[in-house]
């Protein structure tokens, strides 16, 4: 009996390991497939002009319709930064530096990352759901059958819209974050307006703004490629479309965080190599 | 407005599939299937659900790539064509999808005009006339051009899909379950449109259906597939290939059961 129990336990363990193996293999396969998908999209982007009838609606959806929510996001980020930073800085007698820390954090990190996260939810999920619905109703096959390459017709306009407009929307998030942080700090917390603006100008450099926008460019590409890929490879039925929408957000969000880390390291290394005497808060 | 060339040999079959095999994961849908379709023929492909009829239809146009075997259209092997060449051949084929597959974001007029705008150099002012003409051929009035697909009934969507498939005067028209989900009257309207299309445009047609009335009415030839998991080793997947009149004389009980629509021993699958 002991050997039967051992055998059964061994079999269960082997199955559990095999399941993990399957998950890892599926993950590697998905990364490979997504990379190939991105490569095909890039080839179409550089070899043929997108159709205006598919580009303009996407520019409107991604850009114009996202403005209010991104502006609101930015405003609240700025105000929350003011709330969270004020107590610590006032303990050290450094309230006047609040402008520097709020705006540097905003333009380098929180503005790009939170704006991209908001857009991954709003734009990315919508793209995945729309393309997933087109897949399950055979509209993508219909495009293919009529000689219109689906990647060129559907994916390229969405990627271009995200590449151009997500950095633009990040600028809006940064600006409204500045307005929100300034408004809360000066009007509510009573920070001196002159020193708030003076320190912001002293410590927040053009490179910080560039770094934020540089990252947002990659965030936009990641959101578009992941969302379009999940839509194109959607499982059948309403469940499949819902799954595509949720997984596109989750994967986009994880990629945004990973890209933020690696690009942050890269940009900082570049900055301190070129400008070893770079600005410091203290 | 024919976009076809006249290089093809008219005695050669228009479509030839040789020993094609299609698998999805570990599940084999089509196994070593060989089929030739001569020019001008109307072929009905019948079989029970899951036998691979739609996958076979999509293989004919390259929407599904077989892992083995070859597909020739107009004497050209589809797997060897590059993107441009494949597009050039695909616009000679019209595909009427099961749910019509109209683009939700476009109006009916924009849907029907889509192939024209992408493949034909034509004055933009002339396109609406061609669209209205094709819609009239399928019995739809001109005022539907401004409607969105969601505003149409199932039968109207199918007819718009047919108009879109025919706008470039294709050599081959593929129909995927054209009467599924329609009432008996509308089903017969679609059958009549298939017959009228064949006679007006001299096209080759392949109709995938499980509606025996459609198959008998429109087809010159019927091919019946059976699911791979019901086959014995080495048994071909096509279990009937002949004119509709031969269906009643065939000895294979599977064919007779399908044609007569009898549950028979399959009822035990439901009960248990």
Describe this structure in words.
The complex is a heterodimer of chains A (282) and B (272). With 282 residues, chain A is mainly α. Chain A has one domain (34-272). Chain A has helices at 2-47, 52-62, 67-91, 98-136, 139-145, 150-188, 193-203, 206-232, 237-274. Chain A is globular. The mean pLDDT of chain A is 91. By secondary structure, chain B is of the alpha/beta class. Chain B has a single domain (38-57, 87-271), classed as P-loop containing nucleotide triphosphate hydrolases (Rossmann fold), CATH 3.40.50. In chain B, 33% of the residues lie in helices and 21% in strands. Chain B is built from nine helices and ten strands. Chain B has helices at 53-61, 83-90, 108-119, 127-137, 154-166, 184-201, 212-218, 253-260, 267-271, and strands at residues 15-24, 27-37, 42-46, 68-73, 76-77, 93-96, 172-176, 204-208, 221-225, 238-242. Chain B has a six-stranded mixed sheet with strand order 6-7-8-3-9-10, with helices on both faces. In chain B, strands 2-1-4-5 form a four-stranded antiparallel sheet, with helices on one face. In chain B, a hairpin with a 2-residue loop joins strand 1 and strand 2 (27-37). In chain B, helix 3 (108-119) crosses helix 4 (127-137), helix 3 packs parallel to helix 5 and helix 4 crosses helix 5. The termini of chain B are far apart. The model of chain B is unreliable at 1-7 (pLDDT under 50). The A-B interface holds A 57, 133-134, 137-139, 141-142, 144-149 and B 58, 61, 63, 83, 86-88, 90-91, 93, 95, 97-99, 101-105, 114-115, 118-119, 164.
């Amino acid at each position: 009996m002991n050997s039967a129990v051992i055998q059964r336990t061994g079999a269960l363990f082997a199955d559990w390991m095999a399941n993990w193996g399957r998950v890892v293999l599926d993950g590697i396969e998905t990364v490979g497939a997504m990379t190939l998908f991105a490569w095909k999209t890039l080839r179409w982007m550089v070899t043929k002009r997108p159709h205006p009838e598919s580009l303009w609606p996407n520019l409107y959806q991604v850009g114009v319709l996202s403005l209010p929510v991104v502006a609101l996001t930015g405003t609240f980020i700025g105000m929350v930064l003011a709330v969270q930073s004020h107590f610590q800085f006032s303990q050290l007698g450094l309230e006047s530096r609040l402008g520097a820390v709020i705006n540097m954090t905003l333009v380098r990190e929180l503005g790009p990352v939170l704006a991209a996260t908001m857009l991954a939810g709003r734009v990315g999920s919508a793209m995945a759901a729309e393309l997933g619905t087109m897949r399950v109703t055979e509209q993508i096959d219909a495009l293919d059958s009529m000689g219109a390459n689906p990647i060129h017709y559907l994916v390229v306009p969405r990627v271009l819209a995200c590449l151009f407009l997500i950095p633009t929307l990040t600028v809006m998030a940064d600006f409204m974050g500045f307005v929100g942080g300034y408004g809360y700090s000066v009007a509510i917390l009573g920070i001196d307006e002159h020193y708030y603006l003076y320190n912001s100008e002293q410590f927040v450099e053009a490179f910080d703004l560039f770094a934020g926008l540089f990252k947002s460019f990659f965030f936009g590409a990641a959101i578009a490629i992941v969302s379009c890929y999940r839509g194109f490879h959607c499982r059948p039925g309403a469940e499949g479309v819902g799954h595509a929408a949720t997984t596109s957000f989750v994967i986009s969000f994880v990629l945004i965080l990973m890209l933020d880390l690696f690009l942050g390291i890269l940009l900082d290394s570049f900055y301190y190599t070129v400008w070893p005497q770079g600005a410091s808060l203290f | 407005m024919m976009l076809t060339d006249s290089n093809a040999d008219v005695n050669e079959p228009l479509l030839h599939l040789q020993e094609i095999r299609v698998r999805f994961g570990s599940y084999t849908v089509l196994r070593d299937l060989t089929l030739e379709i001569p020019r001008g023929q109307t072929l009905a492909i019948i079989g029970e659900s899951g036998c691979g009829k739609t996958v076979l239809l999509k293989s004919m146009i390259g929407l599904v790539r077989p892992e083995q075997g070859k597909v020739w259209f107009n004497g050209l092997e589809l797997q060897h064509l590059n993107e441009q060449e494949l597009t050039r051949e695909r616009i000679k084929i019209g595909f009427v999808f099961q749910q019509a597959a109209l683009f939700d974001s476009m109006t009916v007029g924009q849907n029907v005009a889509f192939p024209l705008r992408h493949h034909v150099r034509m004055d933009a002012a002339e396109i609406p006339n061609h669209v209205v003409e094709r819609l009239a051929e399928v019995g739809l009035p001109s005022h539907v051009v401004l409607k969105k697909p969601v505003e149409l009934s199932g039968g109207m969507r199918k007819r718009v899909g047919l108009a879109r498939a025919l706008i470039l005067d294709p050599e081959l028209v593929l129909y995927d379950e054209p009467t599924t989900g329609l009432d008996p009257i509308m089903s017969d309207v679609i059958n009549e449109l298939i017959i009228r299309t064949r006679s007006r445009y001299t096209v080759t047609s392949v109709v995938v259906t499980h509606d025996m009335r459609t198959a008998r009415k429109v087809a010159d030839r019927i091919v019946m597939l059976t699911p791979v998991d019901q086959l014995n080793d080495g048994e071909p997947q096509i279990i009937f290939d002949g004119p509709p009149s031969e269906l009643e004389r065939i000895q294979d009980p599977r064919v007779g059961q399908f044609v007569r629509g009898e549950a028979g021993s399959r009822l035990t699958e439901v009960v248990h």
